[in-house]
Fold these 2 entries.
Entry 1:
Amino acid sequence: MFDLKRAFTVFGIIAVLALMNIVFVQNGYSKSADGMNITESHSKSIAKESPMEGLAKFISYTGFRNARAGNIIMILVGLFFIFLAIKYDYEPLLLIPIGTGIIIGNIPFFQDGGINLQLGIYQDGSVLNYLYYGVTKGIYPPLIFLGIGAMTDFSSLISNPKLMLLGAAAQVGIFLTFLGALFLGFNMPEAGAIGIIGGADGPTAIFLSSKLANGGIINGLETRNLIGPIAIAAYSYMALVPVIQPPIMRLLTNKKERTIRMKPPRAVSKLEKVIFPIVALILTTFISPGALPLLGMLFFGNILKESGVTKRLADTARNSLIDIVTILLGLTVGASTQADVFLTSQSILIFILGALSFIVATAGGVLFAKVMNVFLKEGSKINPLVGAAGVSAVPDSARVVQTEGLKYDPSNHLLMHAMAPNVAGVIGSAVAAGIMMSFLM
Amino acid sequence: MFDLKRAFTVFGIIAVLALMNIVFVQNGYSKSADGMNITESHSKSIAKESPMEGLAKFISYTGFRNARAGNIIMILVGLFFIFLAIKYDYEPLLLIPIGTGIIIGNIPFFQDGGINLQLGIYQDGSVLNYLYYGVTKGIYPPLIFLGIGAMTDFSSLISNPKLMLLGAAAQVGIFLTFLGALFLGFNMPEAGAIGIIGGADGPTAIFLSSKLANGGIINGLETRNLIGPIAIAAYSYMALVPVIQPPIMRLLTNKKERTIRMKPPRAVSKLEKVIFPIVALILTTFISPGALPLLGMLFFGNILKESGVTKRLADTARNSLIDIVTILLGLTVGASTQADVFLTSQSILIFILGALSFIVATAGGVLFAKVMNVFLKEGSKINPLVGAAGVSAVPDSARVVQTEGLKYDPSNHLLMHAMAPNVAGVIGSAVAAGIMMSFLM
Amino acid sequence: MFDLKRAFTVFGIIAVLALMNIVFVQNGYSKSADGMNITESHSKSIAKESPMEGLAKFISYTGFRNARAGNIIMILVGLFFIFLAIKYDYEPLLLIPIGTGIIIGNIPFFQDGGINLQLGIYQDGSVLNYLYYGVTKGIYPPLIFLGIGAMTDFSSLISNPKLMLLGAAAQVGIFLTFLGALFLGFNMPEAGAIGIIGGADGPTAIFLSSKLANGGIINGLETRNLIGPIAIAAYSYMALVPVIQPPIMRLLTNKKERTIRMKPPRAVSKLEKVIFPIVALILTTFISPGALPLLGMLFFGNILKESGVTKRLADTARNSLIDIVTILLGLTVGASTQADVFLTSQSILIFILGALSFIVATAGGVLFAKVMNVFLKEGSKINPLVGAAGVSAVPDSARVVQTEGLKYDPSNHLLMHAMAPNVAGVIGSAVAAGIMMSFLM
Amino acid sequence: MTLLFKIPDFLEQGITIAITGYVIVFAALVVLFYVFTAVSKILLARTKRHLAKEGRLDQIKEDEIQITGEVSAAIAMALYLHTLLHDEESGKITIKKISKTYTPWSSKIYGMSNFNR
Amino acid sequence: MTLLFKIPDFLEQGITIAITGYVIVFAALVVLFYVFTAVSKILLARTKRHLAKEGRLDQIKEDEIQITGEVSAAIAMALYLHTLLHDEESGKITIKKISKTYTPWSSKIYGMSNFNR
Amino acid sequence: MTLLFKIPDFLEQGITIAITGYVIVFAALVVLFYVFTAVSKILLARTKRHLAKEGRLDQIKEDEIQITGEVSAAIAMALYLHTLLHDEESGKITIKKISKTYTPWSSKIYGMSNFNR
Ligand code: NA
Ligand code: NA
Ligand code: NA
């Protein structure tokens, strides 16, 4: 073994020296001077080259040579996402693809002088670019909603429709964040897209930002492509819901409120479950047609599930189909955080606004539950913790409610009640997205 | 509870008043005058707006404001499809997605003055429009055929090849409907596409109409986009086969014929099952190369199934893949029935022609079986009911044969015999589609 | 039965006569003269036609009429592929779709005079053409790698990293074949694409040839579309690995070497398995960014698998997703062998070069293992047979190693050791593909 | 809507949109609430009517028709706890299963991993 | 092809297409019929030859080589009836299974629903 | 790099690419080799440190920490043999299962074939 290693050292030294060299040279790297030379040498690539020149040229293409601090930072962020997912089980189905996507999107490659090796997500003809169409054209989110519809049980909502209003109340986060973004200098469509982070719903955020902040001209205003930062902010905070929500919930409630017990929901008939998605589809999209791509698909999925006669389609929608789209969506959203595009001051503003929007949304849900309690008679009161589930972030915020509830009364299970505003929050933020589209497109 | 309701009434009244208002205002709605104003107000959307103006503008975007009688009619049709599927189990895998698609495609939205909110299936950039490409480019039907091939057992055909001819005979429905459509004033390619309804095969109908009646210029003739009506007619009548076929079958046969017993088919070896799709692929597509996209995929799927060494591919083709395509195909075909495009006089003509074609096809199959019986010796006679299965509409028409047969002799199971013309009918109509393409493109 | 046959003879004779006629007429078929007439008659298709003229016209569209010797040869090749897959179980998941694809791609159809019936894979608007985009744009191979990553266990590599070098050594086949192709007159990018056949990895070969030999202008040089021959060569030889490798392995080793026993690999911790894909992703793509589309996806899939928290995504990636892509990839790669495009002298050269590259690669792996043994102390020696697995061709070459090993010592199981270079060979050839892209694009 | 400090035009319009938007979101869910309360009542009435026709209404108490759902709550809870358990367990099983598909992307193993799932 | 009433040109051409088309559809399936009758015979002959070589032909009657398929028919029927039963049953099971995946699109539940299928 | 016979320019460049390329492929896998040898050592050291803290290091021999993997090899072998067996078996099962989905693409059968998988 030791002998072998010595032999490898020959290779190793070549490799390490080369790399060292690169890393050092790179520090003095300047786009104008050095970059040009590389491009020149490239354009002559058909001419004679000695092996050493060939190696030098290859080195100019390596990631070591082209890496910027931003790439390294983003790769560390990607690693952190993966760490969070594995270690704390925070939304792993989102954070693992997004985290890996961030790493993949930030592997540095040579792109000076207009040379397109078809590697980066923003380069025409690259695989990532093709897969990214599903994001920029807003195709993936509705397909995700189809799968979500095929796995969602609306029973808790049907059995206690008044909890639906909590899902409406929490959408205040969307509209206040929208105002905040305007105040910070984003233009109308951009602000609308940023606001939707407060909806705590990843696909909705991606969908709306692909329509309102896609780098094109929307309603006469030039927008920047903010899909990446908005999506990352939405998913990050959704994963951090167990960290963000509890302090706010505790701040706005007293111990007596937190121990309110709620009547168990009544059983729901099969017929009601079939009627719900059909009626909800027609009503919500008549009110907010802009929500059609999202809510149309959500309720379509639910019809597949509840009709009882299309089990195989519902199965595929909630398994293979949503999985494939989740993989591609997570990967490309992650990869869209290529450092030179992503690491900007507006990304930081978006992250700050996003955090505030989650806080406001949570507060909105909890406080509205308290307002409702004023009108509700004894025995029908709502545990205001349940209001926090109105932000959507399904099902993590409902789980947070359950966990918090158990802390103050170990036998008071709030999960079932929290599911209703949780699911209503999804409908609410999709309706809000539709409204934003109507006003701003 | 009662207190809470009172509180909600505040919201409720706002909502209901708004809606009432809209519904009434809409009656006096005129595209030229009012529509323009809305567009104008939209173009000024960047200017100042009071909350009431904002609400008014939003209301002009709601479905209530933009609904036409046609939308309501089509939504009711969609509901009826869903009802049929759930209540009577008529082809639920087709009718549920199509029915929901009809509803989604007829949710009214604002589209005056060239404003494109990217919602409708005919609007560039909408999700439905992207998914609809699979229909307009004829991509979904071959993929459906791939899955169908991977789930079809051709044993009954192999064991009794003469029943294949019944599948040819029933295609008379295609050609007579073609003539009927010409007679009613459709041009050549359109008539070809309409004729294929008589093939009683949904994917084939969609495929051929996407080639011959897609709104483009085909062989020098301007065609209308008839994909929607043709597909809806084909699927509707396929679902209604248990209603349409029995009277015709009874009319054309006497009791003695209906009780003919047929020799049970011989067992088929594995080798024959492997050879069949390969030989059939080569022969049928050599005769009618236009059928290649359909029959190539059908027999490819069957090779995956029968080779015995690609089980996992066959499994995926007949499960996830066909399910995903079925969902997207059903949804978009349904949504393509947007009232302003769909509710035309030619749609009505197409429905009438379609009904006739199913009747003619059924009669063709039954009568040809009777003709064959003239030449067949005693003991080898065919039960003419089996001829009705030649229309395809797999497997419903075979089931109808079985059911009808049992009515007159409760121990005479015709299902296995009916499978042969049933499957041959699919091949026959795909060949016919290929022929139409050769003649008319 | 006999009576019936007589009746059919009426039809049969018509058919057979027609076919006979066609076959004979075709022998005198000349593109310039006869072809023009058909085109002319087609352009007049709107004019009057008697039934006989119609039949004649249809016949001019049949496969019998348009078949060339090349089509028949290729169809026989397709049948042979299917035969190999079923009879000898040689890579059936590849050979069945490719074989069927070859048949489908060589069904003759009418395409003179610019008439486009949208049937052939090279005709705009045909289904095959749409599905073929996944090949020409290099989209399918990365998705295959995603699935492969989600089913690959890198344990053997982690437990004995020095075996990795065998996977590097065998890539000599790529670079020597590249030189051979240059020598035979292929230009730089074409030669690079041909060289990759020596990587013994189908998706990598398709990916690189879609970038370097796609019929476009690459780095100033006009290339021919060699995707088809390269892919077919790669897959054919991969399927034939059990035939190609054993003689070379025996030639280059003596009996003593072949019976070397290797220490069983140590157990690998879960943490190592999680770290591996992440570190390998970053390292390999930093060194060769061109490998990002392939290795990024490969290791992404492996992270999905090893993270332990995204089981459902890994399941879908290694089942439905890879199956769907395998079906479409195999079918279209097969169909891309349309005789007039495929049967050229360069295809023959590519096949010869491909065979040599497999031989060189195998020799490279075996010989490098012997070189390593010089430096390794007794007890740590490598069985040089294991080197043959470095060519990739996963897992067939590892199985060949196992089988050969057992021949000389029936209790010496080499499979586990062979898995390491086998998997390393995949990484190695993807790195090599990335290098080729950097140098030649 | 007069604030203490001067707000720019577009912000004022933004406030309009925000207020209108929030009201509409509420309206949408309020409408759903009303409709579903109504739907449930209609279905309940229909059930009662059916039972009345069959002359079994007096035998059954209101409570029994409209099951309080205590049972379903209990089931849900059991499922929830089961899920928590299951999760960790499934993690373990994953690893085991993965170690089983030892050799990688063989066409033969393809078949096997499929078979075992 | 002279009809009693005057038909327009394109209709005449349509009739040509219709007749030719129908004939070709028949031709296609007739060819398949002939080929498959032949294939079956060849395969049967081959089986007989094999048996003859092994000297077992006389022991086996024609009928036994070409199994009449009564058994397979019986099986098929059983399956058909089974399907009918199954259908309704599967409906029920669907509902039960669905009610089990209580909480919706949690990543954790994702995993679970997958696990349980 | 002077050869006996004259080679054209582009071939010389090709040789450059080939040599450089092969070196880099080796470099890539050598780096991976070094890194993974290091990673394994670090993880092993960490495990030892943990054990030392808990004062259990002396109880456990080096060999036991770094399991030699004989067991895992045995398992792998068993699995391999199992695969071989399984393969043929799965072939048979495939045929049986296929014969079971007798009627084709019925929506009802759709449901059934799904149900049975
Ligand atoms: Na929400
Ligand atoms: Na048909
Ligand atoms: Na390789």
Entry 2:
Amino acid sequence: MKDRNHLSNIGLSHQVNVISNGLLDIPMLQLLQADGVPHAQATLPDMTQQKAEKILGTMQFIRILDERMVAAQRQGRISFYLACTGEEASTVGSAAALEPQDMIMSQYREQGALAYRGFTTEQFMDQMFSNEKEPNKGRQMPIHYGVKELNFMTISSPLGTQIPQASGYAYGQKMAGLDAVTICYFGEGAASEGDFHAGLNMAAVLKCPVIFLCRNNGYAISTPSEEQFAGDGIASRGIGYGVKTIRVDGNDVMAVYAATQKAREIALAEQCPVLIEAMTYRLAAHSTSDDPSGYRSKDEEERWRAKDPVQRFAAWMQSKGWFDEEQNKLFLEQSRQEVLSELKRVEKVPICKIDEIITDVYDVPPWHLKEQLAELKAHIAKYPDAYPKTSGRL
Amino acid sequence: MKDRNHLSNIGLSHQVNVISNGLLDIPMLQLLQADGVPHAQATLPDMTQQKAEKILGTMQFIRILDERMVAAQRQGRISFYLACTGEEASTVGSAAALEPQDMIMSQYREQGALAYRGFTTEQFMDQMFSNEKEPNKGRQMPIHYGVKELNFMTISSPLGTQIPQASGYAYGQKMAGLDAVTICYFGEGAASEGDFHAGLNMAAVLKCPVIFLCRNNGYAISTPSEEQFAGDGIASRGIGYGVKTIRVDGNDVMAVYAATQKAREIALAEQCPVLIEAMTYRLAAHSTSDDPSGYRSKDEEERWRAKDPVQRFAAWMQSKGWFDEEQNKLFLEQSRQEVLSELKRVEKVPICKIDEIITDVYDVPPWHLKEQLAELKAHIAKYPDAYPKTSGRL
Amino acid sequence: MAKMNMLQAVNSALISAMTKNEKVMVFGEDVGHFGGVFRATSNLQEKFGKNRCFNTPLTEQGIIGFANGLAAQGSVPVAEIQFADYIFPAFDQIVNETAKWRYRSGGQFSCGSLTIRTPYGGGIAGGLYHSQSPEAFFAHIPGMKVVIPRNPYQAKGLLLSAIQDDNPVLFMEPKRLYRASVGEVPEDDYIIPLGKAEVLKQGSDISLLAWGAQMEVLEKAAQMAEEQGISCEIIDLRSILPWDRDTVATSVQKTGRLLISHEAPLTGGFASEIAASIQEKCFLHLESPITRVCGLDTPYPLAHEKEYMPDHLKIFEAIKRCVHF
Amino acid sequence: MAKMNMLQAVNSALISAMTKNEKVMVFGEDVGHFGGVFRATSNLQEKFGKNRCFNTPLTEQGIIGFANGLAAQGSVPVAEIQFADYIFPAFDQIVNETAKWRYRSGGQFSCGSLTIRTPYGGGIAGGLYHSQSPEAFFAHIPGMKVVIPRNPYQAKGLLLSAIQDDNPVLFMEPKRLYRASVGEVPEDDYIIPLGKAEVLKQGSDISLLAWGAQMEVLEKAAQMAEEQGISCEIIDLRSILPWDRDTVATSVQKTGRLLISHEAPLTGGFASEIAASIQEKCFLHLESPITRVCGLDTPYPLAHEKEYMPDHLKIFEAIKRCVHF
Ligand SMILES: Cc1ncc(C[n+]2csc(CCOP(=O)(O)OP(=O)(O)O)c2C)c(N)n1
Ligand SMILES: Cc1ncc(C[n+]2csc(CCOP(=O)(O)OP(=O)(O)O)c2C)c(N)n1
Ligand SMILES: [Mg+2]
Ligand SMILES: [Mg+2]
């Protein structure tokens, strides 16, 4: 039987030492300055023009999508939306550092990662309208994306639940011997949930190749981070779990890209978790149900608007000669058009037939669900006008 | 509206810095060496002879109680027991640094704190036999103590639940303007529960005067701490929450006393939480249902037996001239006698009348419970022999 | 009296309770300065200070754990869970702690002063996680009380009762009615007793039983039935645990028929307990099987929400089936 | 065939499953080297390595969260919760995640391969927190299956079914029988279908229904009743969700009477669902009210455990009341 000594690495002191905050001083990785000029001391990661264009294009597309969808919600065309304006770099930059076989388990504000993976405008619209072409069959609210082909796990609303799940998913990848990691996104608010604690600790102990990426955007709905935790952000917790940790400027897509590359490298090589804290700011309202003017100042927002991640990266590209103003204008215009025309087109796609109300509860519907469906269909047939979305296709 | 900046205390770096374990190096406070001689550099806390005697007496009493109760369980006289052998200093030393008005919320291995508060042998026996004199009415298994007069909250088996509860209790004390804190005990295993995370974070954010005392005794039943966490014990987590933290040698009652005094001082003065990690070892089996020979070596146990906290403190007292060998022998003998005679006496005390089966579910039993009781009583009256413990006193 | 919607009624109850008893504290996610995502706690922080009305970190298990300790200490916590769908991380703290605290301590300690408020229910295009009606889970927890109001007047009176009551109460608010239901509400304090159902309308052919937002639906169905000459007795259960079996049994002994409706899935929903008890209590009076009109045994779907819901048409059909059994 | 107790039968099933499919992984608190506090997972780590059978940190929400992710990835997790009393911290992961995963993703992803094993039930002097029977909470969760075996033979066959089944299964093991129940068990693989009740004994006067450890008690009561000339039909429900309504209804249509027994508290227990469904399905056949003999509506008490339990005497009395209604 192995002899264990849980004191082996611990030194002695003979005075009452109170360890407190401020001990760690975790700096934030920034490569590009706000104006897009690299810091003198910074070593930029390798990046091709093509990759840079994809990153910028994705960030710009997402910004447009957000604008249009918020407007569509105001017009009553969709019931709900949730924008990531101001945070595009955290999710697009990190997704760009991954491989397609890596699993993405996200919270809900990571449309950037999804778009980077190749989710199309049409697919976005299908989800928003909960229609029958949506692979999740329209069962959840708008923005709860999920698509197996892109290794993007279907989102669920309960916060934090994906964190231990990501540890388990990554453990499975490791056991299967895959050359793949899992990335798990969450907000600094969600990091208060017990599941965060469970997920990080288990990943550390069970050595799961998972990247935890916390978007610390200063708010959880109306709750500012100073009422969410008293420590030094989320990064300072990594040490406690024995999880390697990187803090990064979430508005600097280059820094996020570099940090995530490094994290993936470590996670795969050492088969262990890495925590990234991306410092950013939610410029948008929490969702279309929210109005931030009730809890924060315009000045504060303005200060952050000046740190726009999209502009910063565009400026850098410009300095590289990779940015054509005219072409970009065209791209933006086309994207806007595409969103609008897809929106219009998809609006008309019907929802799933009523039979789908009972599928996927189990692999095969058991007797009680079949009975309930039969009753329901008979009822709809009796009152077709009351259930117009399904009565036409019983 | 207040302007907030959640980046205000964060510096920049321009290279990918991976922060990892070992950064903190949290030492362990030790005042007395294993042989009871104070470290040269140590400043001992003030301690009167009377206090020292009470501390030693309590530790010795608890050791005897544990021995006798484990034996009683083997004889089938009680159904279950859980010893704290080897860990007496962590709980007695900390309880000794508190005031009677401080609330104790414990896990289950803190009989030392309870005895220090003045819980009598008879009271211990009443609880062990679940009899009608037990203030908790014998509803829980042995060792689930609780006594309002001593400000010792009734123990519950689910691990970790008392941690956020202690934060709430302490918040209530603060709001009531009391000169009191709450101490919350738990094991390093329980610290993996989500409730630990919630409790520490809430205490830090809401500034609750609570002392969290983690007994890191190397095991959670069979699970060694290396399979429980990958960080540097529990202390390293304190920093992440912004909670002041002290690591202490849990087998040095003087160090535990000094650390807890300091923690109480801070908690009261600053109205904030303090975390203490007491490094110790569970010499006993987890409980009478457990046999540690299945998961750890005798050698390992022996190494820790040499660090006996009771002997260490007795040796120090001897060096002060506060320890009379003969008198102590007498005390030990008397304690043994008292435990045995109380055990015998209390064994015969009846359990509560059957009416108590439905009280305390609500403040007043509602109709359905009254109905169920009436039915039950009629049934017992019909089969008195089948329910011998209650049928005599319907 | 003033016209209030249900949110205003809840807010008014909280103001009353906090004014009368300084031990009352209100907390949860976003309930502080912002007043909660539905604004049920508007202005409380302004009026009573940050110590008595505050945001918590985002952790339901922490909120209820904290509230349990606070209650045991002698304060009067009113904890909000932002949506009933998010109460499950706190399930252990509720089942094993809140509800068992008094019993396990022989009455020495208790969480009796705790009230947990949470919006529940469907009909707002909320899909799987903003629509659930989890009352049945809590009705299987001895030690808890579970209360659901149907309109603003009931909301204020029952909430004040819940806060005063010396037992932990889960107070579930039908969020679909938050703004939709408007009525006269006294500005002064008043209480409506817990554990008592209310017969809203006398009738002779069938007893209809529900709670919360489902009462409206029941009334609409009853109206359709009345037009066909079926006389309906309508009962609002109001308290799910302990529930008022006598009022229901008395009604069924008169009408000989019972229909129960809730939004939650059928299997294991609280209608099953009522049906089981009433078939026993009223066996010789029943003229047709007790009927349940409930949610389907599926998660709550978004696109098929309309089809999923136990609406007035389904209830109307079931009433007819029952009466013409 | 070999004589095995229930722990050995469970262990044998786990060995079979892990041998046949290398994706099967077994984990939980103390299940690794030690083999679990009841030793149900003995020798698995030795046989299959530390990667496939391992201790987890002490966090039930983490265990099930981790298991959910692992299942969604395509592995076959068999997670242990040390006592059913400690499953509640994982309730959110089960209700909101495990059970809804397939539905919310339109069948793209699922936790179908997950099995959760947990010992449940009273009669072992365990008091409030080592005695609970929480099956009813899980029976109200669409998407879950809930299975409870009554003896070693059933345990192995049903557990192998549960692990194979492409739906998440909560497998509850009556710990009172772990060592007490011994019987012949094939050493080879075999499966017993989920969702099917078993009629253990034909009878004509009354149908008696239960599951798990309560089957023994039922049989003892039935014997007493038979001695008084009452012919009992005995049914083991085995699957609580989905449950086999047809088998129960067929029996009740024959006997005209139904008694259901479980250890869990009466109110909102699963007997209520059965009673509600059967009174509807068999209305015209019932000769007396459906009777429930269950735990009291209190936490599970230690000192009064004997009085609390729905024992054979209480059931015997209820049978007589039922038959002589
Ligand atoms: C378990 C749970 N509790 C509460 C909510 C309601 N809720 C939705 S988003 C949100 C704030 C999340 O903040 P954060 O994690 O920081 O992410 P951000 O919105 O800033 O991206 C809350 C409280 C939820 N979805 N799930
Ligand atoms: C929620 C919960 N899960 C599991 C258990 C079973 N259990 C009882 S004690 C224990 C180990 C606790 O270890 P630790 O916290 O280190 O305390 P120690 O026994 O070492 O004092 C376990 C797993 C429990 N009581 N509660
Ligand atoms: Mg945030
Ligand atoms: Mg321990």
